[in-house]
Amino acid sequence: xxxxxxxxxxxxxxxxxxxxxxxxxxxxxxxxxxxxxxxxxxxxxxxxxxxxxxxxxxxxxxxxxxxxxxxxxxxxxxxxxxxxxxxxxxxxxxxxxxxxxxxxxxxxxxxxxxxxxxxxxxxxxxxxxxxxxxxxxxxxxxxxxxxxxxxxxxxxxxxxxxxxxxxxxxxxxxxxxxxxxxxxxxxxxxxxxxxxxxxxxxxxxxxxxxxxxxxxxxxxxxxxxxxxxxxxxxxxxx
Length: 238
Ligand SMILES: NC(=O)c1ccc[n+]([C@@H]2O[C@H](COP(=O)([O-])OP(=O)(O)OC[C@H]3O[C@@H](n4cnc5c(N)ncnc54)[C@H](OP(=O)(O)O)[C@@H]3O)[C@@H](O)[C@H]2O)c1
Prior knowledge:
- The protein is of the alpha/beta class.
- Helix content is about 40%, strand content about 15%.
- It has helices at about 15-30, 45-50, 65-80, 105-130, 160-180, 205-220, and strands at about 10, 30-35, 55-60, 85-90, 140, 185-190, 230.
- It has a seven-stranded parallel β-sheet with strand order 3-2-1-4-5-6-7, sandwiched between helices.
- Strand 5, helix 5 and strand 6 form a beta-alpha-beta unit.
């Protein structure tokens, strides 16, 4: 493949927040993005990007918690692309309602797991055939330092912490399984970033955090397979 061939990225939760900014920066430098979202048509950001980058942005509906929705989205990708260079499993939800063990909402916890943990596995399985067709493919799962057992100094947020810790384990498994096909699987922590989830007090601007992660994803190689990385590519404790 020539160096100038655009790279092809699939991004979940691409309608706002970090996913939208990844989409913007990859399109800006000439790459191609398949933006998946629960309701892509209602995203002003995606509409604006489609106008600016005709022919390089595709969208499809995808609820990562729903098997059939994920399969339909993967079919939409397969219809127009014959390979995927990078799958960014970015969609995720926080969990403000599980601070204490005596007041857990188990229905809500199950939903958080469906989205944060099982969603990335669904997408990876559904797009595996296309990932295997790239010589340097990667699966990048957006985790959080809150999913680190070693770093848990305060407790709380049961659903979010547990779902991201389980995502970390799932990613290590993916690294073992997919590494044989040359696919690199990592978990990436963005830092605390100003988005709807991060809130206005977050110290990091979205554009800066994403610029750092775009560089880190560009630099991924076999030596990173199975790693837990910060946005600049440094190692984080499990
Ligand atoms: N911001 C931070 O400080 C921070 C820190 C650590 C980790 N992270 C991680 O970074 C990722 C992105 O976070 P963010 O800050 O951009 O959050 P955000 O602004 O709240 O955006 C979350 C995205 O996930 C999507 N989503 C939620 N449930 C979904 C589902 N069932 N199917 C498909 N998409 C779904 C949302 O789509 P809708 O519009 O349809 O709801 C939205 O696009 C998450 O995995 C998060 O855990 C963020």
